[in-house]
């Protein structure tokens, strides 16, 4: 059995590299599509994994490595927060509000979608 800290570390390293390859740096202007994309995808996948863990399709160890490690490093609340502040500071209040709304509504919505789809498949 591998220690949970090792599982999180390995998953986190993979998630960070994956995130960097998908969204290497924040966009200078406009909507930060890379950050929005990784946060939506990560939310969907965590919804899927939650059901898989509850249905014993996914082991606790895999959930720690993939959920906490990989998806924890892949998604990013801190970059999202800084991007919103940057847009507001730059005068793009309408874009910031849209991005804020898309993330705060979209992420729970796709998590629910992943959860629901997986739950119906597991039944």
Describe the structure.
- This protein is mostly helical.
- The protein has one domain.
- Helices cover 80% and strands 0% of the residues.
- It has 5 helices and no strands.
- Helix 1 runs parallel beside helix 3, helix 2 runs antiparallel to helix 3 and helix 4 packs antiparallel against helix 5.
- The longest helix has 30 residues.
- The two termini are 30 Å apart.
pLDDT averaged over residues? 91
**Sequence stretches where pLDDT stays below 50 over 5 or more residues:** none
Fraction in helix: over 70%
Number of β-strand runs: 0
User: How many helical stretches?
Assistant: 5
- Span from first to last CA? 30 Å
Which oligomerization state do the chains in this entry correspond to? single chain
Please describe the biggest sheet, giving its number of strands, its sense, and whether it closes into a barrel. none
| Classification by helices and strands | mainly alpha
Order of H and E elements = HHHHH
Note the beta-strand portion. under 5%
| Computed Rg | 16 Å
Characterize the overall form.
Answer: flat
Number of domains: 1
């Amino acid at each position: 059995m591998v220690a949970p800290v090792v599982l999180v570390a390995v998953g986190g390293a993979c998630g960070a590299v994956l995130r960097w390859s998908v969204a290497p740096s924040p966009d200078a202007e406009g909507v930060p599509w890379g950050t929005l994309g990784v946060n939506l995808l990560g939310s969907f996948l965590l919804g899927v994994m939650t059901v898989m863990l509850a249905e014993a399709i996914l082991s606790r160890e895999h959930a720690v490595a993939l959920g906490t490690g990989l998806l924890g490093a892949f998604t990013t609340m801190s970059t999202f927060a800084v991007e919103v502040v940057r847009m507001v500071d730059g005068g793009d209040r309408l874009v910031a509000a849209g991005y804020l709304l898309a993330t705060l509504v979209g992420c729970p919505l796709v998590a629910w979608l992943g959860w629901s789809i997986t739950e119906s498949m597991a039944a």
